[in-house]
Specification:
The complex is a heterodimer of chains A (140) and B (197).
Chain A lengths: L1 H5 L20 H4 L20 H22 L9 H20 L19 H19 L1
Helix pairs in contact in A: 3-4, 3-5
Chain B lengths: L1 H6 L10 H15 L8 H8 L8 H12 L25 H13 L13 H18 L2 H17 L17 H17 L7
Helix pairs in contact in B: 2-4, 4-5, 4-6, 6-7
Classes of the chains: A mainly alpha (140), B mainly alpha (197).
Chain lengths: 140, 197
């Protein structure tokens, strides 16, 4: 994630790794969300943290980011034909769309939905990260 | 187990007042949801009571350091911070100093040039330190180097692959597998995310 902010090559690559996005302990998924350090006064919201599913979605998003860095921002990309890069970009755009459409309902990425009542800081982070990437592709 | 170990005085806070230590740990656990689960809480807290392999003082102090920026307690504000710039770089943070001292002890010894060895708690500490420095202290070069060291250690320990061959000498429990997977994915992409401050 640092790589995309600093415009540097990623050091852990999708192609070099083989670890499933599969977590065994799901306690933090339904554990009650706690406002500690996010709010001056402690409030007791009564919704689940959903930490595990947000983590899983972040993992999937970071794979797409890795593809973006290597497919579009790699140093050797300047030597490639522009229509080739454009088709890579379109395919990555498709990856992002599929990622977004496959988001579980409870992550509530759309603020207009009624599920916005249980927005947690980590869900907001997920939205925050995915938005700039998406708007970049709309520009392309 | 956490409250029981706390009440029994078994948790090793590395000299920090237990009440403050628990406060900082609670903030860290609560904030960790936003950036992926780099430290597996049950294993860390259990080993904090018995100095087990999933606990280290480097990691503990790094957690204190990262959590202290999100605490509203006045005693954790950096020295010299005026009312207008609360939460600005805590270069003098005692937790950061302690963590980096312990880290340098790992890499220097009088007998051999270096005895630094890849270790899961060191990887976790390096990633947390890298994230705290990047998003907070604006020491981007050091932040990049710390995360680079963490990633090299990940590959050194074979955490980047679930494959297990006899040559890899992996004899992993289910818990080890969970710790390693969480750590890998945190390092791969989720750590260092922009977060709500």
């Amino acid at each position: 994630m640092q790589s995309i902010y600093q415009g540097r090559p990623a050091r852990l690559r999708e192609a070099d790794a083989n670890v499933p996005i599969l977590f065994l302990d799901d306690y933090e998924e339904l554990e009650q969300f706690n406002s500690l350090s996010y709010s001056r006064t402690e409030i007791q919201p009564s919704f689940p943290t959903r930490s595990v599913s947000v983590f899983e979605q972040l993992c999937k998003l970071s794979i797409i980011m890795d593809r973006i860095i290597s497919g579009i921002y790699a140093e050797n990309c300047k030597m490639r034909a522009s229509d080739e890069i454009l088709s890579t970009a379109r395919s990555l755009h498709g990856d992002l769309e599929r990622w977004r459409n496959a988001l579980p309902e409870h992550i509530g990425i759309s603020l207009s939905k009624s599920s916005a009542g249980s927005l947690t800081p980590h869900t907001l982070s997920l939205m925050y990260v995915s938005r700039p990437i998406r708007s970049y592709y709309d520009f392309l | 187990m956490e409250p029981i170990d706390l009440a029994a005085g078994r948790l090793d806070f590395d000299g920090v007042d237990p009440e403050l230590g628990m406060h900082l740990l609670s903030i860290f656990w609560n904030r960790q949801h936003a950036s992926g689960s780099v430290v597996y809480r049950p294993a860390f807290m259990r080993d904090m009571a018995c100095n087990g392999p999933n606990f280290s003082k480097i990691l503990l102090n790094t957690i204190y350091f990262a959590a202290s920026k999100n605490s509203t307690r006045s005693e954790l504000r950096c020295k010299g911070a005026s009312a207008g710039n609360i939460g600005l770089p805590t270069i003098v943070s005692p937790f950061r100093q302690r963590a980096e001292e312990l880290l340098s002890l790992l890499s220097s010894s009088s007998k051999v040039p270096t005895r630094m060895k890849s270790d899961i708690t060191t990887i976790q500490a390096l990633l947390i330190m890298s994230d705290a420095l990047f998003s907070w202290c604006d020491e981007r070069s050091l932040s990049w180097l710390y995360s680079g060291l963490a990633i090299n250690m990940i590959v050194d320990l074979g955490i980047h692959t679930d494959r297990q061959t006899p040559a890899m000498k992996k004899d992993l429990t289910t818990e080890d597998l969970e710790i390693r997977r969480r750590l890998f994915w945190a390092a791969f992409g989720t750590y260092g995310l922009p977060k709500l401050e």
